[in-house]
Amino acid sequence: MGIMIKDLIESTDLISVSNSKHALPAKVEDLTTLAEESVEQVALPIIDFSLLTSGSPDQRSKIVEELRNACLHWGFFMVVNHGVPQSLKEELINSCMNFFDLSLEEKSVYEGENASDPCILDPIICGTNFNPASRSVSFWRDYLRVLVHPVFNSPVKPEALSEGLREYSNRSREIMKELTRAIMEGLELEEENIEESLELNSGVQKFSANLYPPCPQPELAIGLPPHADRGLLTLLIQNDVGGLQIKNKGKWVAVNAIPNSIMVNIGDHMEILSNGKYKAVLHRAVVNNKETRISLVMTNGPSTETYVT
Ligand SMILES: O=C(O)CCC(=O)C(=O)O
């Protein structure tokens, strides 16, 4: 398989990325806005999930209103008291780290035919690149991407990955359904049964682990270029290293998850369901020269048979 970033930095004394395929051509990105320090750090709205599921009717209405504002003004928010144990999050992060530690030969089983141009319905794929439009530049990220619903897949190694991934897939799907119901309520688009109309029981759920090893020249490279997500809602957890930036009111701002929160953002299906009121916001991942960052991303969409209008 093509070399992955982690293996590249472990096998060489790389001190520069200029003149390599990992350096961004200026037209891809305004490099001056890439450095973490040059971007303002903002606090995202915090949503107390437990009040949606077990609060009083008044408390629930208050959270529905908070969600409405978060979707309208940010497209991103942090969910706390979500019920996913911290231990599950840590196990999953460790298992994914262990996956990236496998030998290139072991990882190459999942390279697939489309590693530089992955398809949404590939069951398991790993590599470095993002999409065909950006083939000329390699991003500073290794990824593992797994289709976990409606059919559950998982790499065989490391052994612990499958159990944690199944558990997290189930729990995050329930969180996504509850948030979707509350978002619909806030839009006063109360569907009799949103789960049925979007066929969420056979909805597509895609898991990605993104590994961003330290980069010798972070100002010249990017982990993930600006993009918006597919689907209804994306749930993101990460280790303690920041790097996510979102476009808010025309400028890039850095967002850092508070401990034990899940970061949630609007995807393009939700934008369509809200008649364009809520936007699938552009975001990107920048890299640093000190620490490895890992983010675990769960995108949740309707079933492949559903038309969203
Ligand atoms: O790593 C991050 O913070 C962003 C990940 C992301 O946007 C993605 O996987 O689509």
UniProtKB/TrEMBL annotation:
Pfam families, sorted: 2OG-FeII_Oxy, DIOX_N
PROSITE patterns: FE2OG_OXY (PS51471)
Domain Fe2OG dioxygenase: 200-302
KW Iron (keyword) present: yes
Membrane-crossing segments per the record: none
Record keywords, A-Z: Iron, Metal-binding, Oxidoreductase
Family: Belongs to the iron/ascorbate-dependent oxidoreductase family.
Protein name: Fe2OG dioxygenase domain-containing protein
Organism for this UniProt entry: Papaver somniferum
